[in-house]
Structures are given as structure tokens and as C-alpha cells.
Write a structure and sequence with these properties.
single chain, alpha/beta, TIM Barrel, 39% helix, binds 1,3-dihydroxyacetonephosphate, glycolysis, isomerase, EC 5.3.1.1
Length: 245
């Protein structure tokens, strides 16, 4: 499967950071992979202009479940499309923790994203204590079943497995642990979507760097990466992308 490497800039990035996108455009000659950059809302339109006519796609990091309304400070999926986004990250653990987003809320947002024509990157992942209790597969399975709405398919959904304990910590699961979870996600997708479940890309996220990307991409059922910190530096991110070729 063609790999997808997505960068999640989180709450980092000013207009001056857009030079990173120029650097990535130079990489896309062979295009053996898809590249997505998800800057903060404020940079989406400018980022989309910079990425125009290249294979770098732009994504957002959240959207509101409704198409419009009296929701001060929120941004709808339709607005993201209007600004030039094609992807949106939904259900990231930082949204689940700091904004109390439940699986049900995530599912509603995914439906809103699909209605607007966006591809949703749906994040799931266990905490350190859940893994310690031997519940990683159960937790990830529960999140997946409840966060993926009707109408989701391989053409409008990507799954990102991001163990919470690995995000920003430098701790990375073993390849066996990654394969175990990714294969259970694949199985659930096939149960849910039939044959199309085989075509859904499953990304790994959590402390991915240029130095560990090749090993991670070599794991079974790993179809790319969702990269936080290392996506902020073009040379490091380019190293990760090259490992996907
Ligand atoms: O949360 C992440 C991507 O969404 C991962 O972050 P890091 O790559 O910084 O660990």
C-alpha cells in the first residue's frame, strides 16, 4: 500500500514556518508516498497556497461536529475545505484529554469531515497504565469501534495508532507491540468494512524520527506515520518521508 506520512504541527508554527513546506516540495519528485502537513488553523490557507501544484496536501488538527452555528471560537469542516485543507486529524489524545472529547464526539466530527469532503485521520491509543494492565488491544478496539461512524471507508478515513505514553516521550513500542496492535486494528476494520478494510491506511504515531522510521515502516500493517515534534524540522521530516519510499 502507498504510504502516508503526516506531520502534526500541534500548537506550533508562525508564518515564518511555512518555509518547511517549500523544502518538502522538493522531495516529491518520485512520489512513492503521500505527504500531509497539518499546521494550526491560522496557517492552513497560506500553507495550501505554498503547497499548490505539489503532492504535499494540507490538513487540519480538529473540526466542529456542525457545519455552522453559534459556536464562538470553533471552526467547521466546510471552513477547512474552503481554506484548502483535504485532511483533518480527529480524536487525537490531546483533544480527548484536554478537551474531554469522547468517542461519540469524535465519531460526529468524522461524519462532519466526511460530509465536507475531508479525509479523517482518526487517532486511537492506550495510556501507559492501560498497557500495563494488559488492556491495550481492548482499549484501542473500543475507541475504534465507537469513533468510526457509518459511511467511513478506505477513501475517506485513515487510522493513526498513537500510544499516549509514546507521544513526545522518546519511548517507542517494540516492532512486535506495534504489529500486534496494527494487526488487531486491521482485523476490526475488515470485520466492519469487509474487503475495503484491507485498504484503510493504518499509521503509527509516537516519537517517530528519521532514525527509527525505516524499522517502523517495515512492520506489518504499518502504512505510514503521524509525526509530531519531528515534523517541525524539514530535514528531520524529510528523513522520515524518505524512509517510506
Ligand atoms: O502526537 C503525535 C502526532 O500526532 C506524536 O507526537 P511526537 O512525534 O512528537 O511524539
Amino acid at each position: 500500500m502507498r504510504k502516508l506520512v503526516a506531520g502534526n504541527w500541534k500548537m506550533y508554527g508562525l508564518a515564518s514556518s511555512l518555509a518547511e513546506i517549500e523544502a518538502l516540495k522538493g522531495l516529491t519528485g518520485e512520489a512513492a508516498y503521500d505527504i500531509v502537513v497539518c499546521p494550526p488553523f491560522t496557517l492552513i490557507e497560506k500553507a495550501a497556497e505554498r503547497a499548490k501544484d505539489s503532492t504535499v496536501a494540507i490538513g487540519a488538527q480538529d473540526c466542529h461536529p456542525q457545519i455552522s452555528g453559534a459556536h464562538t471560537g470553533d471552526v467547521s469542516a466546510e471552513m477547512l475545505v474552503d481554506a484548502g485543507a483535504r485532511f483533518v486529524i480527529l480524536g487525537h489524545s490531546e483533544r480527548r484529554v484536554f478537551h474531554h472529547e469522547t468517542d461519540a464526539v469524535v465519531a460526529t466530527k468524522v461524519t462532519a469531515a466526511h460530509t465536507a469532503g475531508l479525509t479523517a485521520i482518526i487517532c486511537v491509543g492506550e495510556t501507559r497504565s492501560e498497557r500495563g494492565d494488559g488492556k491495550a488491544i481492548e482499549v484501542v478496539g473500543g475507541q475504534l469501534r465507537a469513533s468510526v461512524p457509518a459511511g467511513a471507508s478506505s477513501s475517506n478515513m485513515v487510522i493513526a495508532y498513537e500510544p499516549v505514553w509514546s507521544i513526545g516521550t522518546g519511548l517507542v513500542p517494540t516492532i512486535e507491540q506495534i504489529e500486534e496492535i496494527h494487526s488487531s486494528i486491521r482485523q476490526m476494520l475488515e470485520e466492519r468494512l469487509g474487503e475495503d478494510g484491507r485498504n484503510v491506511r493504518i499509521l503509527y504515531g509516537g516519537s517517530v524520527k528519521a532514525s527509527n522510521a525505516a524499522d517502523i515502516f517495515g512492520a506489518a500493517n504499518v502504512d505510514g506515520a503521524l509525526v509530531g515534534g519531528a515534523s517541525l524540522k524539514a530535514t528531520e521530516f524529510a528523513g522520515i518521508i524518505s524512509a517510506a519510499a
